[in-house]
Amino acid sequence: MKKIFEQEFNAAVSRRSLLQGSAGLIGGLMLPNGLIMPAFADDKPAIGTWPAGSSGSSVSIGVAVPRTGTYAVQGEDELKGWELAAEHLNSGHELVKKLSPKTKKGVLGKEVKLVVADSGAKPNQAVQAEQRFITENKVVLMTGSTSSAVAVALNKLAQREHVLYVAGISGSNDTTGKDCVRYGFRQCFYGEMAANAIGPVIVKAYGKNKKAAYLTPDYTYGHTTTASVENYLKSQGWTTVTNQVSPLGAPDYSSYLLNVVNSGADVLINVNWGHDCVLSTQQAKQFGVLDKMKLVVPYQVPFLARETGGLMEDVYAATDYWWTLEDKYPLAKMFNESFEKKYGYKPEWGAENAYIAVVHWARMVEEAGSFYPPDVIKVWEKGETIPSLVGDVHYRPEDHQCVRPVIIVKGKAKKDMKNKDDWYDIVEIVPGESVIQKPDAFGCKLGDYT
């Protein structure tokens, strides 16, 4: 019997957890004659950072977000969303109560703390930071990513370490496609949803059978988003005359834009992101590209209109959130008011996505009544309809993707702006069910719970 017990225990506990046990991370129960029995909470074996990470009066969330590099501006906006979420959870804010009715103060009564590192939008840097948070801080949740390459890397870390991960910004189809994991979830929209939402809008605006030129960043987000937009537009008779692929953080787009300007394209579709999108758009204007062809940004970059000096005027873009949604959704208005009071500007979609992803996690923990990861995952996988800042949404059990609307915006002229943050008009709110692919279309296989 003793041998069988030891075999079951060794099978259930990871090598890393056993090493942690020597440092007191796995508690023990004293038995007669001074024997020690490994501690089990709720009769479940230890897994990942559970139960060590939630055994005290607080729980920690590991945030690996770019604070330097080409995605730094967007990363700082995301960080504000996570900070506000933690503050609202800990204070029992009225907005949190509407999103997660069982939440009082904290999550299951435990204070939420953030530990933060600069990922630089680099996968290795992000993984190293989160691994350190797992070992040293025993985080119960990981988040971060503004680059999908980081999101995919953290997906793999989450599955290996059995620690939950909610993606920050991640536009690649692969994040909840071929690189999906049981321990990873995504709230925001992505390339395929963006393409299917914005495609009909630009075809209506510019017509069928047009020629498109693409600027594509050379990693998973860029390639999958460009492919999705191309596939939709091809069905409407559009052709691709050039696809200019550039590395992340390219300092100069002149060689790529020379090929674009000579391509004869009717529309330039800029898939670049962060400062790369800002720089390539500014240089497109300097090279006269925007005088010859229309510009479309299928995956809107927070602060792009501001950073480019208003070059998004009359430009269509797809986004996760725009603050004027407060006219339609009361919870969006509550979020906007709270965010602006704290930070002095209207929230962009990085902050909104960060906030709602963490509060949705808190809801799942409260519903599970435990931080035990498999139980929390199974609540998420019920696929229940729950509130968000853009109306009711649900997460698909098959790929852990949130089914939520995509917002199509069009840049405003400066003379029409009502305030310093009034960069866009909302053109359409496209239901998520109408633009999302079937759960198995991109090869998702979630993996095991334990």
Automatic annotation (TrEMBL):
Residues 59-414 form the Leucine-binding protein domain. GO terms for biological process: amino acid transport. Keywords: Amino-acid transport, Signal, Transport. Pfam families: Peripla_BP_6. InterPro entries: BCAA_transport, Leu-bd, Peripla_BP_I, TAT_signal. Belongs to the leucine-binding protein family. This is Amino acid/amide ABC transporter substrate-binding protein, HAAT family. It comes from Nitrobacter hamburgensis (strain DSM 10229 / NCIMB 13809 / X14).
